[in-house]
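As noted in the main text, all predictions were made from sequence alone. Below is one such record, for isoleucine--tRNA ligase.
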Amino acid sequence: MAVCTKWCEFKFYTRLLKGTYQNSRTVSSSARVTSCAHGEPERKHKKYTNTVALPRTDFPLRLDSRKRIDRDNYVHEKCEFSTLYDWQRKHVQGPEFILHDGPPFANGKPHIGHAINKILKDIIIRQKLLQGYQIHYVPGWDCHGLPIELKALVGETNLSAVTIRKKAEQFAREAIADQKEAFRSWGVMADWDKCYFTFDKQYVKNLLRQFHRLYEMDLVYRDVKPVFWSPSSRTALAEAELEYNPAHCSMAITVRLLMQRVPDAICSFIPPHIASVFALIWTTTPWTLPVNQAVCFNPDLSYSLVSIDGHSGEMYIVASELVEMLQQKLCRRVEIVTTFPGSSLGGARYIHPCRSEQVQPFLPAAHVTTTKGTGLVHSAPAHGPEDYLVALEHSIRIECFVDEAGCYTEDAGPALQGLSVLSEGNEAVMTLMSENILHSEQLVHSYPYDWRTKQPVILRACCQWFIDTNAIKQKAIEALKTVKIFPEHGGSAKSGGGLLAQLERRPYWCISRQRVWGVPLPVFYHKTSGTPILTESLINHLCYLLDEHGRDFWWTLPLDRLVPEEVLSEHAVSLDELEKGQDILDIWFDSGFSWSSVLNGQKVADLYLEGLDQFNGWFQSSLMTSVALRGQAPYRAVFVHGFAVDAEGRKMSKSQGNVVDPLDITHGGQDKKSEPAYGIDTLRWWVACHATEHSNIPVSRNVLEASAEAVHKIRIVLRFLLGTLHDLPSDVDVNSEPML
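Prediction:
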């Protein structure tokens, strides 16, 4: 077995040494006495050596790279790690310890992050085994989703849905085989014969049934809402599928909107020579102005009517606290004419910035602040969650002029139709509004990107399926109070506070995706009304079809095979009135229900162990689904580790050329002098020493050399123990009680 986790064996040898060392010396002395009694003359050079118990062993002090690799292969073959798990399930009678495996994506070769995660898990379950626990650890893989689908589409165009699914499945299976081989080679003890996969029939059937349960409980619903949308992937994304680019550059503009009706509170302060009064807004998304539907103000703030040097015959409305900031930005003197309460803006109206025939309202909103901008917020309900909520409150019909590709539709007008809102469309809007832009600047800020395509995303209103997080959130927060988070760091973002904070600010969970490699969202719709058709009898029928026709049944069978007569009669509809849904389920919904499949829906895991990023991913999705359906967290404790970084503390990435392959650590790189084969023991030791905190995990030549040296010191001790016990009889009984 690998040295780095064999402290238990070390204790075993120590105990053995203490208990049998004297016996060993006695046996040796007796043998020598017997030999002399029989008159056998001792050779002169053994006169003294035979009186001393000197260590004798063939165990080598050092191994070169080639022998180290051979030794690892030999240990893996002879120690039968694969049977250890089965043995302990049958013979260990202690309490069960459940470590539930978070499924890695089946989208590539094993990497250093896999090594950190799997070896940490192995260290824990081996410790628990030596403490007398029976271990439950079933590895799994997340087999669906955009990352795998994109890999299947490389170099391909115009493929059918079924072809894409076949290619994606093949790619996932190949990745699983590669990863599984590596995980086993690292000495990980697990139920390798009963791994779970999110594309297995039984797993998919469970997902269909659980989705229906949530639907029956009114915890999932369909609605038009602004969601994160990736134009590059043409699908909605969950928060966990985003990464934020801190160096994103946006064009921020200050725009004037012509008032059509000014507040009564300021009418008497407007001189006769003033021809126009404008409201000033500030936005970093000029492309959303064509779909502007209101301007929001905060009724608790004070606003000012101001004049600006160089703008004769005009006055402007801005939050009083931001007048000085406006003056600095424009580099012009801004003079306050009068100040009035924000509540006075309630009846005001303005002319739409892009459609002069359209008049829009001013609406009160609590999300308006004076931290930046002008204190008046341009509202586009199709492209912002706060704007959306304001629109709902005031019964405003939501308009969206952006299609799946992130381009303007014909509703935006001929000058904008077909233009990408993130590039030429944004520029076109600013050109159209140039006369009303008082100031523009480049703003570098953090902005969400698609985690796979590395391209910016937008917020876009479309019809999607959601989990009602508001109905679950408070129960989840209460359930989280009973969960232990390790390592303990108080309430910081890197401990339980991180999960709690993510949970508290999550507005809703969009669980539908517009792709094909995934579990079909099992819903049919009435063509006229759009009413969803989803019943228990339908789910039972779909599960039967899944068993009979395989996981592609949703895409291969005609509508009359998918919808049974029982469902048509139940809803009093004909087949011609229905259409099949085209969405699949979010992969975080897939993996978030792993507790339901792997733990049989009843057990609670003793431990979930994953990286920091899972606070916003698997930890949260598992918590939400478990609380929704059984009122408790799926885990009693959570252990969180950091990420591998290079010697300079930089995150590993292919573009920077600093990625370390775990295979290069164990087997050596191309240049064996600069990248020697350290072996699996060193890899495991490095993980044990450096990966047990939230902090990032350094991996470099110096760190690996230090780990190799530490393993060598243990090797010296073991060599001494083996040498000292070389003549120990093999039938000596050893205390069988737990060694830890």
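Residues 289 and 353 are 7 Å apart (CA to CA). The first helix runs from residue 7 to 37. These features were considered when defining construct boundaries for the mutagenesis experiments described in Section 2.9.
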